[in-house]
Amino acid sequence: MAGTPIRLVLSDVDGTLVTSDKVLTDAAVAAVARLRDAGVAFAVTSGRPPRGMAMLIGPLALVTPIAAFNGGMFVDDRMRVLEQHTLPDEVAAGVVASLLAAGLDVWVYRGADWIVQDPSGAHVEREVGTVGFEPTVVADLTAVVADGGPPVAKVVGVSDDLDRMARQEAEARERFGTHVSAARSQPYYLDITHPLANKGTVARHLSRTLGIPTEAIATIGDMPNDVLMFAHSGMSIAMGNAETAVQRAARHVTTANDEDGFAVAVERYILPTLTG
Question: Which of 224, 231, 269 is nearest to 15 (CA)?
Fold first, then answer.
């Protein structure tokens, strides 16, 4: 039985909208076109920087605000900044120092730049393929954060030691408290952003700016940080590749991202709300 007709679909990108190989499939593009033809708006949110989502704008005909850095920055379809929430310099410096001391590789995003100390570090090559541009390499990230340049939008701790990542996620929340939002966008990425930069805030922001009540929003994602937007939508859909806790937090579960789970969700759960 259909509930409130959906008027906006808000989707995560990696692990959800694109395949594991970062491919936007024909089925996903067609599903967004079907939404548009039915009068349903479509928006994306991701831990990626704005430039890392630019390749989605043309194929998906995006016109809604694009929520980069998990809501740390909203840009339009011309990459113009609409709104941003950045970390205070002293908080950013403390986060960078803490993650480096814990033995994680650390990335800093500010302005249009992605900054690293080790270009051969864990997942750098993978991230280049994801976002479509190379990082800026520096000798000392702590000095960069303190140099008076643009404010930091996101700090990422990177490690394939998943137990260490879990400990650092908990420690970041305990140490920095309400000064940051700390959540893993992938098991090996710990994203630390402004406290308002989270996907729950993204859903509320789009509800307010587009004039669409949250009960008419459908959200789709695969990671624990997507659960925050599930709570602010009328319909939540977890990917088949999501961990069990994320699936349990959603109203529906679709197939995996490598099985066109996004397109399946649109056809199976979202479009039927429009026909009753």
Answer: 224
pTM score of the predicted model: 0.90
List, as one string, the DSSP characters of 243-269: -HHHHHHSSEE---GGGTHHHHHIIII
- Find the helix or strand (DSSP H, E) in which 72 lies: none
Question: What region, left, alpha or beta, does residue 11 occupy, with left being phi > 0 and alpha being psi -120 to 50 degrees?
Answer: beta
- Residue 244 tokens, joined: 């069990």
What's phi and psi for 272, nearest 5 deg?
-60, -20
Quote the CA–CA distance of 191 and 6 in Å, as a whole number.
Answer: 30
Q: Which amino acid is at 257?
A: N
pLDDT in tens, 92-133: 999 999 999 999 999 999 988 999 999 999 999 999 999 999
DSSP 5: P
Q: How far apart are the first and last CA of the chain?
A: 7
Structural domains in the chain, CATH included, are: 8-84+197-275 (3.40.50.1000), 89-193 (3.30.1240.10)
User: Any idea of the CA torsion for 114, 118, 119, 121, to the nearest 10 degrees?
Assistant: -110
C-beta contacts of 111-118 below 8 A and 24+ residues apart:
111/149, 111/150, 112/49, 112/50, 112/51, 113/150, 114/49, 115/141, 115/144, 116/141, 117/141
